[in-house]
Amino acid sequence: MNRILAIALLVLSMSTWSQTLTIRADDWFPMNGNPNDPQPGYMIELAKAIFEAEGIEVDYQLMPWERALHEARSGNIDCVVGAYKEDAPDFVFPQAHWGLDRAHFYVAKGDSWRFSDFNGLLSRKVGLIGGYAYGDEFDAFAANNKGAAFQYMSGDGALDKNIKKLLAGRIDTIVESVAVLEAKVKEMGVQGQVVSAGELTKATPMYIACSPENPLSVGYMKMVDAAMPVLKSNGTLDKILDSYGLQPW
């Protein structure tokens, strides 16, 4: 009887993990981008390297960030990528981050304004993206001045729209990850037209983060924790990052 029970538990365990892991996030290349592109983003390649080795298929699609957080928080999808812990403090995170991000203020070329303090933003029209965490202090300041100095863009292509609004003069400042902004202006063919106006945040850890409603989330993150040292030691992590022109953290 004990042997039969052990076999049954083994089969159940195998069936539990032999499934599909759903990952959703907005386009935030080079962390994650077009799912149909040979380079869908280094975080997606990392996820595939980890989970597909365990027989778990990765189903990655783009989704507006606020909706992705909502769907994961509701248990309708499994994970998001490119998350700060401030984005989703209730989610399940791995022990080690998947890279460090820095956010800068950006303005159109020729604009002499440079960031000095938050109060200086009150005379600006700042474009932000709904659902993003920019740091607790800044998030609170922006929320208190929403509609005055700060405008939020949501939905698909939010960064593209904010860059177009900036270049059209409808807003005069945006806040974005340095790596993401550089990749996006190159994609849009507007290099040199958008310039940094100062740093908002120092290096901030980014993660894959999974649904607090999914009982498998803890197990998924244990897989990540076990796999990352291996991917570092065997050169897989370096190879993935190098293909995106990034340095290992």
Automatic annotation (TrEMBL):
Domain called Solute-binding protein family 3/N-terminal: residue spans: 27-84
SUPFAM superfamilies attached to this UniProt entry: Periplasmic binding protein-like II (SSF53850)
Swiss-Prot/TrEMBL keywords: Signal
Secretion signal, residue range per the UniProt entry: 1-20
Family per record: Belongs to the bacterial solute-binding protein 3 family.
Protein name listed in UniProt: Transporter substrate-binding domain-containing protein
Organism: Pseudoalteromonas viridis
